[in-house]
Amino acid sequence: MSEPLVGEIVDTRYELRRLIARGGMSLVFEAHHKFTRRAVALKLLPAELRGKREIRGRLLREAYALAAVRHPGFVEVLDAGVCGEHGPYIVLEMLEGRTLDGILAARRRLSIADAVQVARQMCEAIAHANARGVVHRDLKPSNVFVARNEIGEETVKLIDLGVAAVAEEKLEEHDRKLTQAHEVVGTPEYMAPEQLWGRAIDARTDVYAIGMSLFECLTGEVPYVGSYPEVLVQVSNATEPPSVRNGRPDVAPALAVVIETALEKDPSSRFQTAAELGRALVAASGFEPGHSMLLSTPAEESPDSAADDEPERAIKLVRRKAPRAPEDPPPSTSEPPPSHRRQFVRAPYVTPVLLISPTGGEIEARSEEISEEGMLVITALSFPLGAPMQMRFASPMTGEMIVLDGSVRWTREGRGRSAIGLEFAYVPPVLRGAVAQYIAMVPVAEE
């Protein structure tokens, strides 16, 4: 078995166009249906995992879980199957936007209004799923996608139900062992105490994870960090919920109480449902249910300059066509000289990027945005300003692998990751045209 390649056809009808994401457990491609020409996201297993029965089962069960929780707040599953050449696969709607994790890496924290609107939408989707016997149990910013709906409004889509717990009565006998409620799975920093301890989980486990994600959106940090054993010890020794106002004093006391209630160690002391948490967030914040403005403001903009107390913001849907005025680099970062201010419009663009240093070292990264002059990437390492860098990534229109030289324009270091602005040294006219065409196709909302 070999890795799938761009241009191959999966199950006679899905043509792979470009790689979107590469994880330890799956590969996600942009694909086009051979007959309808619809663009979709197609999820496959890496070649080395296709023979593992449990992992194959998890992938296909994710398709079932997504179908069971069908809701505007979850990515929509369109198809699933098993291909003789490529193994099991899931076909999902193609989302345009960015993960909440990527947004936080670049901006560190969000305005209070944006954070509340994102968390409120998470609550709506999770309340719907929990009512249908599905507990996500791996809620975290990297599994929260900020996209645009059909009329240009920002909307939250929850992704990756690969480790979701599904009520046993909804499962076939051979699938039940893949979804044990006592199984310890998830990401330690966002796992509820009962989940860390290997005890039974329920809807209140997801409430805790929403609270922890909101805590990070507001403060830029999570209170418990480290490996699974380290987080387990920290949570076990905590005598009270972490204080959000210690890291974000401008959060209203009433809103802080709501978040800290969601983070109570004892499940019975938390909100008992995500719906309760969502209603409490609206009441305590004073913001009417609405939409965030995370994709229409500069990715590097400091949250401190955002209008935290401005719940109503008029927007209109436009298409990117002409360069905007130069913009400042991200505050609290290494600042480039004025002659290197950003000159070109950019758009969300998520794809793996291989960074190659002058010494030949290779670093895996992920792009978040692209323009005709450069990219915003997320990686585990940081680099000095001006450092030369070679970039290898897929063209946004054709999926063709591109290799460009460039340099580090700005950096922002965060918890276990860095956001880096990369400036292209030279862009071939063909690629420049492809990037411009891609950006012109992406609708954006402007104030």
- The CATH topology name of the largest domain reads Transferase(Phosphotransferase), domain 1
Top-tier CATH class of the largest domain: Mainly Alpha
Distance between the termini: 50 Å
The CATH superfamily name of the largest domain is: Transferase(Phosphotransferase) domain 1
The SS-based structural class is alpha+beta
Spans where pLDDT lies below 50 across 5 or more residues: 168-182, 297-341
Based on the coordinates given, report the CATH architecture of the largest domain.
Answer: Orthogonal Bundle
Rough shape? globular
Strand order of the largest sheet: 1-2-3-4-6-5
Task: Classify the helix fraction into a percent range.
Answer: 25-40%
What is the averaged pLDDT score?
Answer: 84
Order of helices and strands: EEEEHEEEHHEEEEHHHHHHEEEEEEEHE
- Radius of gyration equals 22 Å
**How many β strands by DSSP?**
19
Beta-strand percentage range: 25-35%
What's the number of helices? Answer: 10
Tell me the count of domains.
3
Largest sheet: 6 strands, antiparallel
Description:
This protein has three domains: 9-93, Phosphorylase Kinase, domain 1 (2-Layer Sandwich); 97-285, Orthogonal Bundle (Transferase(Phosphotransferase), domain 1), CATH 1.10.510.10; 316-446, predicted glycosyltransferase like domains (Thrombin, subunit H, Beta Barrel). Helix content is 26%, strand content 27%. The protein has helices at 53-68, 100-107, 112-131, 193-196, 203-219, 228-237, 244-247, 253-262, 274-285, 429-441, and strands at 9-10, 14-22, 27-33, 39-44, 77-83, 87-93, 97-99, 134-135, 144-148, 154-158, 165-166, 316-319, 346-356, 362-371, 374-379, 388-394, 401-414, 417-424, 443-446. Strand 5 (77-83) and strand 6 (87-93) form a beta hairpin. Helix 3 runs antiparallel to helix 5, helix 3 runs antiparallel to helix 9 (274-285) and helix 5 crosses helix 8 (253-262). The longest helix is centred in the first third of the chain and has 20 residues, at 112-131.
